[in-house]
Amino acid sequence: MLLSIILVNIVAAIVAATLFLVRRYDLLSRVFTTLLKLWYPIYDADTGLPMPTLPFIFPNGQGNVAKFLHGHENSIKWGNEYGHIYRIWSGFHGEIVVTRPEDVEAVFRDSHIHLKANANDSGYLMHQLLGSCLGLVSGAEWKNLRRATEPPFLRNAATSYVGAVEEHSKEHIASLAALKSDTSTSWKLEPHGDLRIYPFLALADILYGRLTPDLKERLLAIVPGRDSVFRAMVQGGWTRFPISRFFPFKDIRDLRTFKRDWGHWNDLAHAEAIRKRDTGEAKDDAPVIHMYARVADGSMDREALLQTLDEMLFANLDVSIGGLAWALVFLAAYPRVQDRLVQEIRADLTPETSGTYLLSQSNYLHHVLLESARLRPVVAFSVSQSAPTARRVSNFLLPAGTKFIVDADQLNVRDPLWGPDNTTFRPERWADGGVKRAKDIRYCYWRFGFGPRVCLGKYVVDLMMKALIVELVRGWELRIESEKEWANMEVLDSSMKIACTRRVGDEK
Ligand code: HEM
């Protein structure tokens, strides 16, 4: 009896000591770093030196937190420490970070035949949430899904949404001003929180037809659950592993609840769109009717459709809000640019010209968006994908299937092409005679993607952002309220509050 008690205690002590050492010296990470480098060797063709590689941190590698939440800081830090081409880990998957235009071109010139990384190398939770969405599938599956979902996003289609989107932006700004202003002459805008709902509802109306109050309420009720699953996916951890579905983790339960509610809500919205069509209440078929028809005739999978609709309404809209917030912060911080924009709006925008003005790709408003997205791309690193053939990139020979990501911050801000005023917000650089010659910037400016496969929503998202910017700046003068010296771009932050003061002569 005594002997067995002693033995149990010895075993417990050994296990505790091992766990302590494993945690204290991060042994799992060290062991995996060594193994992964041996398993996936990459050497410089001339010097024979191994590719600079970040250590693997168990279990996420660098993971989404380092890549996306702290991407802007890490773009600089990793570039300084590891050079212009290096490798990071997303889970157990190596991803080569390319930072120079010539390397981007070598990889992305045939992006339409690239293979997207399975669930963006983010593991089980991401696979269940968005693993089959348009942006993360490849080959024939991608072609089918793109064909079935792209009609409402083509440039021509975007022209038909102008009136509705303008109406959404007017209503939204008017209700914010009424809610937040004591005096009706000034109020404070908190870009992220105050604006999120605007493109969300505007895009939902485009996809499903004008939502009834009940559908709108039900949709908004799904948002917190979706946010919580997405946050868990970004944090990673055990839900990266498929085995996590057998454990009573809250994140797995939240995922199941969200997927059930999302499917149910889409069915209700589809039924309502059909009702409106059949009663003649709606002039045109809502796009969701055609998308459900593609599921019914077998050319698209229901799960792929639901995930693609999630991708459009949740995943990509969240990044759009970041982009919109930055554009407004820049306008508030650079009064000269704001004044010039207001002049252009007063001169060029009338009810008859609003479509042409808002969809133009060459006016000052468009240049404001391009410049804002240059300085603060919505994410610092692109999603992971591989080319179908081997590539020589810088001095490294990389086999087919090697995964690549692009350091958008390095390209957009710190590439010599943009110097010497590369950190200044100067929309004029995009005017004729500036840097905008397509060949100069084709692989040196990341916004909607490189090569032939690019963002599906690019015309619609630009329209939504422009309509809101126009509505805001023509009625209200924007200024940053901050203790800091805000004219220095490095201290600007997209979560800063923006003071909005009614423009003289615009009192209602
Ligand atoms: C400022 C906001 C946005 C930016 C900067 C942006 C940028 C991008 C980028 C870089 C890609 C990846 C292209 C690739 O390399 O494969 C992408 C894909 C995609 N985006 Fe956007 N996006 C934005 C907003 C939106 C919105 C609002 C939608 C909603 C319809 C949307 C729908 C999509 C879809 C469905 C894909 C996948 C396309 C495909 O793989 O065929 N995006 N976007």
TrEMBL record:
Pfam families: p450. PROSITE patterns: CYTOCHROME_P450 (PS00086). GO terms for molecular function: heme binding; iron ion binding; monooxygenase activity; oxidoreductase activity, acting on paired donors, with incorporation or reduction of molecular oxygen. Its cofactor is heme. Heme binds at C455. Keywords: Heme, Iron, Membrane, Metal-binding, Monooxygenase, Oxidoreductase, Transmembrane, Transmembrane helix. InterPro entries: Cyt_P450, Cyt_P450_CS, Cyt_P450_E_grp-I, Cyt_P450_sf, Cytochrome_P450_monoxygenase. The chain crosses the membrane at residues 6-22. PANTHER family: CYTOCHROME P450, CYTOCHROME P450 12A4, MITOCHONDRIAL-RELATED. Belongs to the cytochrome P450 family. This is Cytochrome P450. It comes from Melanomma pulvis-pyrius CBS 109.77.
